Amino acid sequence: MKNIKKHLIKLIIAIPLLLFILITPGVNIITDYLWFDSIDLSSVFMVRILTKLFIFIPLWIFFGGFLLLYLRHLNKSYTHLFNFNYKKLITPISIALGALIAFTVSGGIWLDYLKLVNLESFDQVDPIFGMDISFYFFVLPFVKEIIQILITFLGFVLIGTTFIELIFSDQIKIADESLRETPSEFVSRNLNKTFFIRLLSKTKYLVMLLFLLIGAHFFLKTYDLLYSDRGITFGAGYTDINVTLWAYRTYTLVAVLAAIATFFASKKKKFLYFASGPIAIIALTIIFSLTASFVQKLVVEPDEISKEREYLVNNIEFTQKAYNLNKVDLVEYPYEETLNYDKIQRNTETISNIRINDERPLNQTFNQIQSIRLYYDFYDIDIDRYYIDGEYTQVFISARELDQYKLDNKAMTWINQFLKYTHGYGIVMSPVNRVTNEGQPELLFKNIPPITTTDLVLNRPEIYFGEQTEKYIIVNTDEKEFDYPSGSDNVETMYSGDAGIRLGTMNKLLFSIKERSMKLLVSNNINSESKIIINRKILNRVNEIAPFLEYDTNPYIVLSGKDGKLYWIIDAYTTSKAYPYSQTFKFNGKALSYIRNSVKVVIDAYDGTTKFYIYDEDDPLIATYSNIYKDLFEPRSEFPDELVPHTRYPQDYFDLQSRVFMKYHVNNPVVFYNGEDVWDIATEKYMGDVQTIQSNYVMFKIEEKAEFALILPYTPKGKPNMTSLLVARNDEPNYGKVFLYRFPKDKTIQGPIMIESRIDQDSVISPQFTLWGQQGSSVLRGNVIVVPIENSLLYVEPIYIISDNKDSLPEMKRVILVYNDTFIMEQTLELGLKRLFGEIDDTPTGAEAGSLEELLNDITKKFNLTKESLDELELLIKELEEKIK
Question: Phi, psi (5° rounding) for residue 683?
Answer without folding.
Answer: -110, 165
